[in-house]
Amino acid sequence: MKIREIIAVIEDFAPLQYQESYDNAGLLFGNAEWEVTNVLLTLDTTEAVIDEAIARGCNLVIAHHPIVFGGLKKINGNNYVERVAIKAIKHDIAVYAAHTNLDNVRNGVCAQMAGKLGLENCEVLQPKRGLLKKLYTFVPEAHAEAVRTALFAAGAGNIGNYGECSFNAAGQGTFKGAAGTTPYVGTPGERHFEAEIKLEVIFPVYLEGRIIKALLNSHPYEEVAYDVVSLDNAYQQVGSGMIGTLPEAMEEQAFLQYVKQQFQTGCVRYTPLRGRPVKKVALCGGAGSFLLKRAISAGADAYISSDFKYHEFFDAENQLIIADIGHFESEQFTVELFYHILTEKFRNFAPLKSTIITNPVNYL
């Protein structure tokens, strides 16, 4: 198996187009055409993780956090990022990162967190915009079903929990083929009238190439008329954070103890209790203070995330409980997610989970 085959599975689950503009997800070191010896899964790519990959015969490390986040102007080994780069390249170890793209997909990092708490009726807390497009095309009536089916199979027509969504309007099209054309219907040089269906379907931007290929392969016309337009609609399946409900409301202290237990953290920093039960819970893996107002407006009783600064705790304003569980602790189950993605696709392939605890924060 080649590295590109592993990457394709991850990016089918979490397309790179879903990463934030500041991010650096993707293949950081190595060649996608290398044959895979084995894969090591980790949250962070540290020197110890590269050593582990060497010892365990892995030439591909898949991490959540990109070891190279900004540009590297020099690689002299003066810091841990440069030392990791040198060692990985020296030992022909490829390093791949799936970061905010994995955060933003509905079944990604936040879903892992929600699963640990048993949250139900989960939704993306802040859906992203600019990730959807719409295809308009015109098809002879007799071929409309074949084209629809091909577009649906390619991934078009999904809106929320509904699939195979399309709009179809009957009309009449005209065309006149030039000399040398071989039209599916009509005669070259003569205007032809054809009963057609105007077909509209929505699709995520990363599937555009696949959608257009399906259209051209299934459409009977020699020249296919179609339009692709960008939409500003919020994509409910992709975005930051998640919100859901506990099966049963919990007393606040009991809830915080439950959170501490489920996320195996040595410390939960939290805002003053409100004397109200906790039922609706918002959460975000990693640094999530930017979603606090969204969590409040969504009616959450508690918001679980990490990396809150001192003054940001005041912003809760007694409208919910902030529970800061630590950056590592909020994302530690990402390794399980990587493992599930790969073993679900490759049933006879067993990637290795790193045994290195990369959390740089300790608790006394």
The end-to-end span amounts to 45 Å
Largest sheet: 6 strands, mixed
Structural class: alpha/beta
Order of helices and strands: HEEHEHEHHEEHEEHEEHEEHEHEHHE
How many beta strands in the DSSP annotation? 15
Output the CATH homologous superfamily of the largest domain.
NIF3 (NGG1p interacting factor 3)-like
Physical arrangement of strands within the biggest beta sheet: 5-10-12-13-14-11
Shape estimate: globular
What is the name of the CATH topology of the largest domain?
A: Udp-n-acetylmuramoylalanyl-d-glutamate--2,6- Diaminopimelate Ligase, Chain: A, domain 1
Give the integer mean of the pLDDT values.
96
In quaternary terms, these chains amount to single chain
| Rg value | 25 Å
Task: Briefly say what this structure is.
The chain contains twelve helices and 15 strands. With 364 residues, it is an alpha/beta fold.
Write the layout of secondary structure elements.
Elements: H1 3-13, E1 26-29, E2 39-42, H2 47-55, E3 60-63, H3 80-90, E4 94-97, H4 100-104, H5 109-117, E5 120-129, E6 132-140, H6 144-153, E7 167-175, E8 192-204, H7 208-218, E9 226-231, E10 234-250, H8 252-262, E11 269-270, E12 278-287, H9 292-297, E13 302-306, H10 310-314, E14 321-324, H11 327-331, H12 334-345, E15 352-353
Parallel strand pairs: 2-3, 2-15, 3-4, 12-13, 13-14
Antiparallel strand pairs: 1-4, 5-10, 6-8, 6-9, 7-8, 10-12, 11-14
InterPro entries: DUF34/NIF3 (IPR002678), DUF34/NIF3_bac (IPR017221), DUF34/NIF3_sf (IPR036069), N-reg_PII/ATP_PRibTrfase_C (IPR015867)
Pfam families: DUF34_NIF3
Protein name: GTP cyclohydrolase 1 type 2 homolog
